[in-house]
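Journal club side-thread
Mid-discussion, someone asked how the predicted structure for our own chain would compare to the paper's figures. Pasting it here so we can look after the session.
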Amino acid sequence: MPSRRNPVRRASRLRLPIAALVSAALLVTGTAQPAYAEPADAAPAAAIPNDDVVIESRLRNLLHPMLTVAQDTQVRALVRNAVSRQFDGDTNALLSTVVSEAEESFIVDPNAPEWVALKNGIAQFQNINGYAYEPQIYIPNQDEGVIPQDNVVMAVAPADEQAISTTGYTLDPNGQIRELDTPVTEAYAETYELWVLSVNEQIDTGGDTVVTTTQVADAEQAAGSDDARKEGGDAGVMAVCNPTGLRNNRGHEYLRQFRVPDPGSFGGLFEGKLEMKVIVIGSGGAIIRSAYFGKIKKKHLRNWQYPDLFLTSWDRAQLGDVWGYLWYEADGGSTISVTLNIKVIGSVTVSWQKRDDSAGDAPVWFTESTYQQYDTGSVEFTVCSTGGDGGTGYDNFARTGIASASSTYPGYSPARVNDGSTNTGLGGEHSWANDWGTYPPNNPEWVQVDFGVDKTFRRVVVYTSQGYPIRDFDVQVWNGVTFVTVASVTNNTSLSVTLTFSARTARLVRILGRSGPTHQPGYVRVNELEVYAV
């Protein structure tokens, strides 16, 4: 496992244009995997107006009118209610929403000087370097029981996104802004209510796959627990990774897990939840998959997130021997097209939002073990591969497949036929059996395994039950139209039968039971089915 590098820090404490944050490419030739040194940082791009500096300045103009109107009990209640609704998954509310709901509720005087000043200040965000931002109130940890206060404490999200403290403000009895004696920190915001003036991060997911992750507490648990995988969509399909850690050509590739050991490198207390994205790029620069993982609290990102995201089948002829994983934290802003230098891959043009932060990139080679942990300097992640051609992974192809049957006797699951146990004992804990009333030989019963992808194989081994061996059965494969028989057995009395035949390429293989044992012909039992290339 590679050693963890310190997270990449920016040259300036202020957020720089994304093109200035991407490391220089290391270009290689040939197909052999090189040893490489970490490249030097790329030179900054030409300076462009920094939106964050302008945003902070205009947020400060909102301090006095917002603190003033917040002296009203009903306004405070309205703001807290709006924040609790978490319209975009975080404890925040757009100031435009607050204004609209307050006026329609007739709890404010729309012509009062402080209210007019507030609306005028909000309007100033409609054009910052050509982009319209939405100012908001963000209350950290409101969903975790912070203590509300009558005298609101307010802060402005600083342009320095790595700030871990800032000035807190209240109103004194004369209606003037007063600074708190000590800075507000994360520890303060975990106990007391803090209203943070910031701008909403309007994230353009575009064609990204939107994935909800499952949290896993630590690497050991993540590496050993298929139960931690979630179901639904592109994530959590319960893929069984090749146990050797090797890949087969055209095998299915997954982003298994990721975490951010130092979430503070992308924003302190005042940034809210983080929104991670990844772009996976093939050897020729083609984008294989881009994914957005939604809003995740920083304290949770330190733990493993488990998307189990299917990327694509790794066809070496089309996608090459190395992929680049480009990570970033989405902060919104105007959409721009930037050309980035991705390690090993080279120059790639991608769509970006102006305020997004680079989280580094790392190459993943086809020939590397999937047990390896990758580190971009800011994000750690692992991958998974299953299926495909060749002899890596399970030699027994059936082990990675999904078993099903024409019928099943209660307690005798089809999953028993590819659970890896060749125990020939009698009983549901060892075997599959067809259901009562569906008797062979007049109505043959079957159990099958679907590999998910085509496999080429020549040998099948069938294990059956002690005292109840299958007497007559066929081995059949799917040819895309129907099942065809590649081997047949009659009058069998053995508990283990090995059958070889001419090589077949198929994704499904099944045992068609034509008759059970002489003393119970209506039941066929299969304890284990094994399928081999040779």
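Post-session note: Residues 1-49, 217-237 have pLDDT under 50 and may be disordered.
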